[in-house]
Structure formats: C-alpha cells, structure tokens
TrEMBL record:
Keywords: DNA-binding, Methyltransferase, Restriction system, S-adenosyl-L-methionine, Transferase. It catalyses: a 2'-deoxycytidine in DNA + S-adenosyl-L-methionine = an N(4)-methyl-2'-deoxycytidine in DNA + S-adenosyl-L-homocysteine + H(+). InterPro entries: DNA_methylase_N4/N6, MeTrfase_CN4_CS, SAM-dependent_MTases_sf. One of its GO terms (biological process) is DNA restriction-modification system. Residues 8-76 form the DNA methylase N-4/N-6 domain. This is site-specific DNA-methyltransferase (cytosine-N(4)-specific). Its EC number is 2.1.1.113. Belongs to the N(4)/N(6)-methyltransferase family. N(4) subfamily. It comes from Thermosediminibacter litoriperuensis. One of its GO terms (molecular function) is DNA binding. The keyword Glycoprotein does not apply. Transmembrane segments: none annotated.
Length: 378
C-alpha cells in the first residue's frame, strides 16, 4: 500500500513563540508547536482534544490555551501532578503567602542520603515542604495553590543552573542516581551550596506566567473545570465516552528508549509515589512485535472514543539508530482498528542540545524528525 508523505517545516520554535506556561521539563516531550498545528487545523473551539500518553501535558495544555475541552491520561501519576495545576493557576502573591505558612524544621532529613544533591539547609526545606504537602493531601485539604507549589517544586528538584534546588547536575529531564552524582561532584570539584527553595519556587511561578494572557488563563480555567485527568492504561479508559473525542494528539513510549520510572525516582520520592509501582504499571515493550501488539490495543480504544469525522495525530520517531521507522508499522495498526490514513506528516527540525545529549543525530536517529501518522474516523 502507498500512503502519502508530506515533508517540510510545518512548525518551528520561531513560527509561534509557545506560551511560557509550557516550560515544565519532562523526558521525551514534544514542542507545543506540534499539537498546536493539528489543533488549529483539525478542531474548533469547544471540541475535545485528548492525549492517552500525556506526560507533562503539552497537548492538553495547548488545547486549553486555544479554547478546546481536554482529556488527559497517563499511567504515570506524575503526569497529573505536572499537568492539572496549570489549568487552575494561582497568583504569585497567593503562592508567596502559602510558602510563608510552610513550617521549616531545621535538620529535617530525607530517609535516603541526598547530600550529594543538596546543602543540608536546602534539604531541610525540601523535606519540610514535602511533609507539608503530603499531609495536606492525606487530610483532604490540598487546594489549587498547594498543587501548584507541588508541581513547581517537583520540576525544580535537580538541574543544571542556580534555578534548581540541587548542585549542578544533568538537565532536569535526565535524572541521575546518587552514585553518579557523587562522581559528577568529584569531577567538577563541587559541593552543594545553599539554595533558597521558596525564592526559586516563586521565581519559577512568575516565569511560567510571564507570557500568559488573561484570555488564555480564562481558557485554561474553563478547560480544567470540564476536563478529565486520568491515570489509566491507555488500552482501557472506560471513563471516556465512546465517540466523544474530536482529536487525539499523542506520542507513545518508543520501545525501551526511555525508562520513565528510573528517570523520575526523585520526583516520586518528593510526591510520596512508589517508583516500583510505576515500573509495574508502565508497559515497556522490549521488541517491535510486543510494541505493535500494545499499540494495536491502544488504536482500538482510540477508535471507540473518536467521534465520526474525528482525527488522530500519532507522533513516532526513528528508533534503534534509524533502523526502525515506527510510522511504517503504525499505519497498518490504525487501519486494522478501522481508521483511514490520509497521510504521514514529516516535520524536519533543527539539531538541539537535548538530542545531542541523547546521542541522536539530526534527522537520522529519532526525535528531531517528527513523523506523525494521521488517521481519520469516517
């Protein structure tokens, strides 16, 4: 069979400066311009946009900004922690006031050794904040301000600049083990210095809101009030009504390229989540046949949820050093589920630092060449 391929620069980071509200780091996420392209092209205001592998929430946040209704799903509970708060945004003054109410216990320590990441006073602030937020959640008193602070703090735990709580380490979308951080410290001759966690949280809050217009903020609030934020296996989402989704824009896990549980061990600790539980829930396919079997079930579930005339934009990359083009395997899966495939959109992007860290050459090995298989339900 032949499927048309449309190759070009359909979106770039220069085409439309993305909203600052997107600037939450997460492994293996695409740029907001990708879902924006399809949301603008294939939906109208009030339509439902869905992402079954939501990650940090790029698709649904962009859909909310554009006045669409949203459904977010991810088997990893960190997804909702990073996504949902951006629909219910507090003011910086509310965040500042709430942070003042968080008691800091001098000498508070985590149950594991984190001295290679944090100054003792910084660790005390982090542990105190963690205990405060988790207690509020357990008591049922956690509100939108708490959830916002939790999201921002989760995104600031480790990183490669003074804007993070930790000493210099890899970028925040690339977690390192304590043992590896010890080696990084030795190699750079560094030791953790004190970081004011409250000041960092407040600064990041203001940064996230710096290019957010009032209209966009109201759109997000409206979308959040009617939206669904689920933590389910993408193959079984009974809370989503049949024929209710106008557009799905998603990027599924690519075989065993990313270990989401290992990458998020520190974020899991801060939020009281068992990373081993995530490991059990996140399905990682070790070979192409297994991956196709899983995605076939996902497509059948997508077909059930998609409205007549609705669309699915399924982003995949080249994996295993360019030896596997997943779009060639995805198209038959969508057709078997009942969809039509009008074509594959190939967007060529420029080389990025993140791709260099991953060992990916531009347009050869993966995430720099976005390949989107486009499906339609008749």
């Amino acid at each position: 069979m032949e499927v048309p391929r449309f190759v070009g620069e359909f979106w770039t980071s220069r085409q439309r400066q993305a909203s600052s509200i997107h600037e939450i780091s997460y492994r293996a996420c695409f740029k907001p311009q990708l879902p924006a392209f399809f949301i603008r092209l294939l939906t109208r205001k009030g339509d439902v946009v869905y992402d079954p592998f939501s990650g940090r929430g790029t698709t649904v946040v962009e859909a909310g900004l554009l006045g669409r209704r949203v459904i977010s799903n991810d088997v990893n509970p960190l997804s909702e922690i990073l996504c949902r708060p951006r629909f219910f945004i507090p003011s910086p003054s509310e965040v500042e006031e709430r942070l003042r109410r968080v008691p800091v216990y001098t000498g508070a320590r985590a149950e594991m050794d984190l001295s290679m990441f944090y100054h003792p006073d910084t660790e005390a602030e982090i542990v105190s904040l963690r205990n405060y937020l988790n207690r509020r959640r357990q008591e049922g008193t956690e509100d939108d301000v708490d959830r916002w602070i939790r999201m921002v703090a989760t995104s600031r735990l480790t990183g490669h600049s003074p804007g993070f709580f930790s000493v210099y380490t890899l970028p925040p979308n690339q977690a390192v083990t304590p043992e590896r951080q010890v080696k990084i410290n030795e190699r750079l001759g560094q030791k953790p210095e004190y970081r004011d966690t409250r000041a960092i949280i407040l600064k990041k809050t203001k940064s996230l809101l710096r290019r957010l217009e009032l209209r966009e903020r109201l759109n997000l609030l409206k979308a959040g009030r009617t939206g669904l934020f689920l933590c389910c296996d993408a193959r079984h989402t009974p809370k989503i009504e049949s024929g209710s989704v106008n557009l799905t824009v998603t990027s599924p896990p690519f075989l065993d390229v990313v270990d989401y549980a290992t990458d998020n061990w520190l974020r899991c600790w801060f939020n009281g989540i068992d990373p081993q539980d995530i490991s059990k829930r996140v399905t990682v396919a070790r070979d192409l046949a297994d991956w196709c079997g899983i995605m076939q079930e996902v497509f059948c579930e997508l077909y059930r949820k998609t409205a007549p005339g609705g669309w699915v934009a399924f982003e995949v990359g080249e994996v295993r050093r360019g030896s596997i083009n997943l779009d060639e395997y995805v198209v038959p899966l969508g057709l078997r589920a009942g969809f039509e495939c009008p074509g594959i959109v190939v967007n060529l992007q420029h080389f990025t630092k993140t791709s260099h860290i991953w060992g990916i050459d531009n347009n050869n090995y993966g995430t720099n060449t976005n390949r989107i298989a486009l499906f339609r339900k008749c």
